[in-house]
Amino acid sequence: MGTQLIIDTDPGVDDAFAITLAALGTDVDLLGVTTVFGNVPLAATTRNAQRVLALCGRADVPVAAGAERPLVYPHPHRARYAHGVDGLSGRAEALPEPARELAQVDAVNLLVTLLEAAQEPVTIAPIGPLTNIAALLAAHPGVRSKIDRLVIMGGGLSLGNVTPAAEFNIWSDPEAARRVLVEDEVPAVLVPMDLTVRCAVDADWLGTLRASGPIGAALDALTPDYRDYYRKALGWDGTVLHDAVAVAEAISPGILETERLPIEVDCTPGPSRGATVVDRRRIEVAERAETSSVVDVAVDTDLDGLRGFVLGRLTRGAGDRP
């Protein structure tokens, strides 16, 4: 049995790549997928997750819908500027219809059921806002022992994308992010956009994926709006698969280099709301509150190796399925 994994997600183009990376892996036991508001509203993120799993031939994987809004404040806007009106560059309906009905329980209840049934600790990869995970840990603290670690795509050490200070996933629900990253004690790896942007892939990479088979071609077909956005953001013809980088670490622990760092999440209403603040000063001089939380923050990787890892798994998997 491979890595036991649950993905909590808000698809999203990069989420679609991340789900596929796990769904095609023969060394991954994908137990379930839960959805959350984020890049687009909950109904769309849920439908997108179901369609991506259908593309991968994974009718065995249950999907449950979760939070439709943040814990405290309304979500100011979606990410249509990058992901398109439906989250998948306006091309969601080109994917297969869902092959399995939506679970009749909500995301938190599905998470509890899957964790309690697992024979060994499970990795959870939250790659959207952390609302579902915060609710899970608050309402069901007994499941902590069944979680091996959280591998979270979110935050920025030195930059943001939705604001100069904040990355989209954390900014979408800072109170939930603080509950998970600062107030809880579940082992966590935070994969920030500082690193995921460095892992950007180019047109040749996408061309190889497109030529690999029906799944690769379908994934590439979801990227036009996203790719247009990243041409502007990067200044060259490439795209950033943020969430796939986190899922790569979830299924291949150690593919990313990490540092244990104290962390805070800014929940104030000012211009730094949603910022992840890590203390990289030497411990001998850093003045930290006793309540400071320490998480493993991904800071580096073999960039070409990471790109090759993701591409190799997607293309091999794409060739194995019709």
UniProtKB/TrEMBL annotation:
Biological processes per GO annotation: purine nucleoside catabolic process
Keywords carried by this UniProt record: Glycosidase, Hydrolase
Domain (Inosine/uridine-preferring nucleoside hydrolase) spans: 5-304
Identify one Pfam family in the record.
IU_nuc_hydro
**Would the keyword Signal turn up in this protein's UniProt record?**
no
Native organism: Amycolatopsis cihanbeyliensis
Q: Name one GO cellular component term.
A: cytosol
PANTHER family per the record? INOSINE-URIDINE PREFERRING NUCLEOSIDE HYDROLASE, URIDINE NUCLEOSIDASE
A GO molecular-function descriptor = purine nucleosidase activity
> What name appears for this protein in its UniProt entry?
Pyrimidine-specific ribonucleoside hydrolase
